[in-house]
């Protein structure tokens, strides 16, 4: 028999928690807290023409168990306004933050006007949160003449400071795409510039603690408060190099799926996601698309949950496999799984947008070493899956496909084609890493020589990417941190590219 509290938690998670007067007064609504419970900041995400998700997770002392919060439900009020001073409130409400959901709050606001900026905040325990800025997308199909977005990935806490996030926040983009490796699950080895808890998380308490440690960073909080985000994950939100029900350390699929369920639950609790994305056991629906009027459609992929297991392991040197291993091109194998591939092809056929952005985890172009080896953890290990995506763009005559990626801790710009000498089908940009260490210049030079579709590569600088769309051009700027090993380091433009409407490829300007 589930406890009353468990039922409350379930209701809170599933239905946004419809409060009854009784449940409200029994919560610790009136309790004044000594410390502000907003130690993890605020966020918004998943914008639509009439609303978005507002998020916070209460923690008065983020590094303590339960974030220093009481085990009883805590009443939280929220409000959203048309001005940054919060004078013209357009909606408000209240929710309970319960320990069973990690004291997270997900509010789905609707009924707002399309294509507008809004500001929001939460109140609890006699404290007000910082004010976040968010926005709605333009009305469906309407003429939109501009979208400025940032894309970022890979923020290993111990590897560096988040100056890139401070710069991203200062850009005040319309939207942020986070493309994976939001946390790293690894144990702390004592190396790096800052410490987090030593033990590798394997259960919900462990993952919650890891998120709390990361989210207490004020630069990361500033980036969340600056714009709505759309997030997807890579491997380190769960375990290194995992795929489907398998990783490199857990002995059985059943053990691993238990761990995956805990990691997915913690991911949901810590991200501004909609209720439809809430995990059910070890499953969580994360792939989806959003439109920005008629200007852009953005598809966000999940390349971890549904993939076939890695292949050609016997011929692997530990990291890479030979190009000529036949299984990697087996059409029966998929990086996305059949359902997601079918969904993506339907997206291609239905999109009328001028720019079609694909948010995913990797460099999608083949990345071969001079010895003829490729990775088996990304698209290169699932070459038929990649081919089907490229053919889908071509066959559906998708307008201006642009791939945005992360994972490899390097900046790359280039193009994708179906044959070695064929015309480019899509443009591609990988936006470096916020803090995770990348590759040395000499290694990048060798990769560029072996992979002619790449026009730019840089692995020694941390940072993020900025995309500015108009009906005529897609301008991508790589932004680099001077030194991510020190806090508050300056950020400058590294390189700039333009994709013109109708012309695939990354032209440096
Ligand atoms: Fe990473």
For the biggest β-sheet, the strand order reads 11-10-9-21-22-23-24
How would the global form be characterised?
globular
CATH top level class name of the largest domain? Alpha Beta
Q: Which second-level CATH architecture of the largest domain applies?
A: 4-Layer Sandwich
Low-confidence stretches: 1-22
Rg of Cα set: 22 Å
Helix content: 10-25%
How many individual helices?
9
**Main sheet overview:** 7 strands, mixed
Would you kindly provide a written description of the structure presented here, covering whatever features stand out?
- α4 packs parallel to α6 and α7 (338-350) packs parallel to α8.
- This protein folds into 2 domains: 1-136, Immunoglobulin-like; 137-508, Alkaline phosphatase D (PhoD) (Purple Acid Phosphatase, chain A, domain 2, 4-Layer Sandwich).
- It is an alpha+beta fold.
- Helices cover 20% and strands 27% of the residues.
- It has 9 helices and 24 strands.
- Strands 11-10-9-21-22-23-24 form a 7-stranded mixed sheet.
- It is globular and about 65 Å long.
- The protein starts with a helix and ends with a strand.
- The structure holds fe (ii) ion.
- Fe (ii) ion (FE2) binds at residues 154, 181, 236, 407, 409, 436.
């Amino acid at each position: 028999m589930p406890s009353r509290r468990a039922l409350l938690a379930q209701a809170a998670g599933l239905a946004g928690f419809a409060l009854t007067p009784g449940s409200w007064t029994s919560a610790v609504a009136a309790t004044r807290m000594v410390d502000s419970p907003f130690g993890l900041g605020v966020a918004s995400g998943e914008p639509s023409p009439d609303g978005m998700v507002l998020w916070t997770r209460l923690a008065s002392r983020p590094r303590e168990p339960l974030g220093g919060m009481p085990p009883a439900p805590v009443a939280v009020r929220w409000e959203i306004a048309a001005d940054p001073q919060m004078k013209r409130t357009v909606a408000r409400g209240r929710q309970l933050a319960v320990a069973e959901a990690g004291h997270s709050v997900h509010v789905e606001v609707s009924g707002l006007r399309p294509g507008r900026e809004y500001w929001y905040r939460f109140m609890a325990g006699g404290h007000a949160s910082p004010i976040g800025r968010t926005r709605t997308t333009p009305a469906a199909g309407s003429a939109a003449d501009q979208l400025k977005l940032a894309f970022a990935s890979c923020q290993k806490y111990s590897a560096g400071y988040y100056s890139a996030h401070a710069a991203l926040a200062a850009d005040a983009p319309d939207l942020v795409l986070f493309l994976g490796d939001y946390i790293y699950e690894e144990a702390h080895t004592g190396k790096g510039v800052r410490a987090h808890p030593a033990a590798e998380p394997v259960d919900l308490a462990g993952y919650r603690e890891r998120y709390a440690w990361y989210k207490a960073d004020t630069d990361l909080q500033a980036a969340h408060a600056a714009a709505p985000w759309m997030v997807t994950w890579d491997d380190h939100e769960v375990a290194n190099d995992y795929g489907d029900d398998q990783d490199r350390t857990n002995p059985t699929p059943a053990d691993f799926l238990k761990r995956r369920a805990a990691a997915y639950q913690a991911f949901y609790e810590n991200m501004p996601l909609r209720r439809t994305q809430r995990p059910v056991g070890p499953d969580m629906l994360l792939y989806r698309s959003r439109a920005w009027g008629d200007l852009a459609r953005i598809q966000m992929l999940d390349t971890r949950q549904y993939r076939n297991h890695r292949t050609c392991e016997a011929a692997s040197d530990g990291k890479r496999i030979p190009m000529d291993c036949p299984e990697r091109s087996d059409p029966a194998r998929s990086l996305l799984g059949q359902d997601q591939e079918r969904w993506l092809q339907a997206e291609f056929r239905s999109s009328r947008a001028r720019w079609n952005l694909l948010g995913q985890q990797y460099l999608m172009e083949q990345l071969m070493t001079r010895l003829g080896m490729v990775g088996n953890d990304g698209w290169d290990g699932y070459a038929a899956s990649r081919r089907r995506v490229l053919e889908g763009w071509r066959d559906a005559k998708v307008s201006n496909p642009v791939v945005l990626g992360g994972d490899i801790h390097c900046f790359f710009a280039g193009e994708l084609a179906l044959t070695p000498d064929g015309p480019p089908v899509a443009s591609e940009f990988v936006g470096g890493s916020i803090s995770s260490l990348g590759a040395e210049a000499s290694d990048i030079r060798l990769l560029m020589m072996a992979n002619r579709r790449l026009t730019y590569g840089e692995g020694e600088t941390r940072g993020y990417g900025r995309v500015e769309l108009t009906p005529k051009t897609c301008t991508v700027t790589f932004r680099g941190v001077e030194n991510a090993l020190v806090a508050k380091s300056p950020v400058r433009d590294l390189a700039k590219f333009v994709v013109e409407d109708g012309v695939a490829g990354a032209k440096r300007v």
